[in-house]
Amino acid sequence: MSTQQNLHDDSDRSSVALLLIDVINDLEFEGGERLASQALRIVQNIATLKRLAKSKKIPIIYANDNFGKWQSDFRKLVDHCVAEPVRGRPVAQQLLPESDDYFVLKPKLSAFYSTTLDLLLKYLRVRTLILTGFAGDMCILLTAGDAHMRDYRLIVPADCVVSEDPGSNQCALELMNRSLDVDVSVSTKIDLNSLIGQHIQQ
Predict the structure, then answer these.
(1) Residue range 13-201, CATH number
(2) Which of 17, 25, 78, 144 could form an S-S bond across to 126 if both were Cys, CB 3.0 to 4.6 Å?
């Protein structure tokens, strides 16, 4: 779809968006083996939530590290994680981005810091964000903090977020719930129709 068409087409606008944070990742770093084992426990939950969101025409946004490489290309990162024998391959294979998905590359932990995410969300008219991915005690937590300061309603389904250490992940979820007013219900408890309907009524 061209930029000129986008200016006149509201078909991609939505009050709710699903973020997949750092799920396309080779996990080839210190601690990556522990994170990979945790990620495999929840990858199907994220995949199921993504399919459901797409069926409701909720936009999917991938937010991924550029790993300090300022010439990073998201498609090359996908190819690397899917085609090569890296730790993150089983996860990436189940969460492949589709042609109508969005993506942003982030230089730091938060998906908002020095990225186009806020501008994209404003374009889409998003008011509720569902955050999924890795790691709960780092990138998810800091993204949630930045989103909270921007007045987005936040949902971080507890069964769609992991960290290297399960205890740290649980602490992060409790902190987000207590301090950032984040809904941390499991993904099967999320009523997407209700979320969309609430914003339509407002």
Answers:
(1) 3.40.50.850
(2) 17
